[in-house]
User: Which sequence fits this backbone?
């Protein structure tokens, strides 16, 4: 009797599949997606990817799904006709997802987080899966063989943030009972790009159509036991850090960090001691690069010397280092050096160079309406030419900007004109520090979007100009404009400057002649 009932249900199942256009392959994909991701079917969001608002032309956003999530709706998701977002149960989930949305640095940050999971939490690489969001972000995903408690997952997530240095806006935990997450293998609403699985090392799309059937789940009980066993070590290493930095992430070392190191490295080497509180992390990174690239130390020699410095500091000035466990201190120091040699991180000096501002850059400056905005942009332009990396990114803090302007640009003014430069597509905020928070000590990462080359032609700005010791940056700007008008005969400042600004220029020329 039961056999006949099961055969009838199987027949009805196939008839429904045929009715809704679900073939055998699609049926397998629907089933595996349900098995991997879904712990509840009564709460979900749905978005019709092909439907648009007839007034605005914008695609319609997510709406709350009615009733229970059906196989047909999941099949439509896989056909890229709809996009489904799912929730966890209130107290448990089948899957843990880290949603990385740090814009242009998302790929680098994703690789960094995977490194954190493998190195610090000893999660095997084979259990770490990554999907591309379809826009700029990535989802790092761990699948479990049984539902796992949300309290445990949230605690693990907090530990990941602690070690990595990210905040909850940069890396979000999904799914939650209150926040949904998109299922993969459908279309992103804005870009029409498909959300696909990618390689967890290269982040290149995985072309194997059977990849989703090969996903391995983590043993829930063993994973919880393992994470609990190492939690006290993680907390001990990273508690009370006032300036948590990402350990293998070289771009987090600002110009100010490097300038501090260059002022003090010889004293640190001579005394075998750190000099100030909360400098251990950055000094360790920079000293390992300096020893490798400048003094040609081997990896073992570098480890020995840095261990001597940090252990000597902990012994004679314990308050300078927040890590109390000596074995943990040794471990984090050794790992830093090993990363420096493994990834060949380079030591780069912050010595200022002469830079040149060309005619097009002068015109870009003059096109800005407000004189203070001109001053600020030129400051960014010079900083970029001196310190930008291979991707065009550079650091500068509000404190530096204020110092360069002889305190004539306050924090609110700086924030106002940064937003204006972003709006006009002169500047891009790659990583926010002091952009919205107006924290004068927090360096942000920026990128000049206008033409920005290092050609040895144009108006010379000497290395002692536009630095933290400038007496009056506004005078420096006026001198630049006067020199530019003299150099480029086609340039007429009267066409670009307001009457009040021209008056400043004339007064400057008059005073320079008298002098």
Assistant:
């Amino acid at each position: 009797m039961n056999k006949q009932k099961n055969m009838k249900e199987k027949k009805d199942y196939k008839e429904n599949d045929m009715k809704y256009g679900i073939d055998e392959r699609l049926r397998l994909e629907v089933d595996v997606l349900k098995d991997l991701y879904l712990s509840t079917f009564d709460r979900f969001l749905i978005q019709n990817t092909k439907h648009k608002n007839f007034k605005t032309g914008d695609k319609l956003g997510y709406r709350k799904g009615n009733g229970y999530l059906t196989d047909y709706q999941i099949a439509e998701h896989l056909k890229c006709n709809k996009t489904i977002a799912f929730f966890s149960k209130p107290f448990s989930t089948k899957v843990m997802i880290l949603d990385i949305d740090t814009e242009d640095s998302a790929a680098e940050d994703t690789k960094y987080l995977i490194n954190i999971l493998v190195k610090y939490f000893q999660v095997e690489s084979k259990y770490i899966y990554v999907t591309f969001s379809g826009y700029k972000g990535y989802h790092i995903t761990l699948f479990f063989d049984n539902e796992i408690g949300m309290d445990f997952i949230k605690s693990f997530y907090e530990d990941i943030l602690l070690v990595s240095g990210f905040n909850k806006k940069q890396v979000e935990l999904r799914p939650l009972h209150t926040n949904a997450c998109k299922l993969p293998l459908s279309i992103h609403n804005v870009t029409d790009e498909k959300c696909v699985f990618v390689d967890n090392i290269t982040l290149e799309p995985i072309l194997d159509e059977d990849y989703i059937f090969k996903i391995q789940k983590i043993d829930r009980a063993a994973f919880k036991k393992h994470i609990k066993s190492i939690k006290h070590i993680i907390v001990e290493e990273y508690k009370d850090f006032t300036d948590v930095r990402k350990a293998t992430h070289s771009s987090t070392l600002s110009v100010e960090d490097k300038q501090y190191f260059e002022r003090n490295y010889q004293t640190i080497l001579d005394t075998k001691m750190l000099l100030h509180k909360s400098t251990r992390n950055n000094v360790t990174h920079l000293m390992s690069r300096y020893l490798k690239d400048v003094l040609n130390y081997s990896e073992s020699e570098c480890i020995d010397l840095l261990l001597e410095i940090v252990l000597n500091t902990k012994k004679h000035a314990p308050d300078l280092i927040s890590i109390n466990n000596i074995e943990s201190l040794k471990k984090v120091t050794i790992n830093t050096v090993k990363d420096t040699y493994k990834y060949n991180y380079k030591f780069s000096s912050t010595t200022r160079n002469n830079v040149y501002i060309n005619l097009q850059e002068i015109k870009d400056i003059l096109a800005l309406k407000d004189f203070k905005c001109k001053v600020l942009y030129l400051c960014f332009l010079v900083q970029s030419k001196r310190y930008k990396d291979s991707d065009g990114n550079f650091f500068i803090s509000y404190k530096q900007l204020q110092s360069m302007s002889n305190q004539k640009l306050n924090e609110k003014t700086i924030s106002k004109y940064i937003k204006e430069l972003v709006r006009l597509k002169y500047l891009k905020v790659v990583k926010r520090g002091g952009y919205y928070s107006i924290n004068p000590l927090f360096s942000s990462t920026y990128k000049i979007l206008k033409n920005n080359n290092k050609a040895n032609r144009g108006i010379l700005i000497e290395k002692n100009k536009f630095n933290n010791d400038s007496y009056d940056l506004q005078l420096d700007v006026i001198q630049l404009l006067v020199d530019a008008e003299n150099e480029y005969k086609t340039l007429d400042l009267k066409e670009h400057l307001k009457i009040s600004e021209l008056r400043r220029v004339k007064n400057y020329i008059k005073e320079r002649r008298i002098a």
Remarks:
- The chain has three domains: 16-233, 250-342, 355-514.
- Residues 162 and 363 are 45 Å apart (CA to CA).
- The first strand starts at residue 44 and ends at 48.
- Residues 355-514 form one domain.
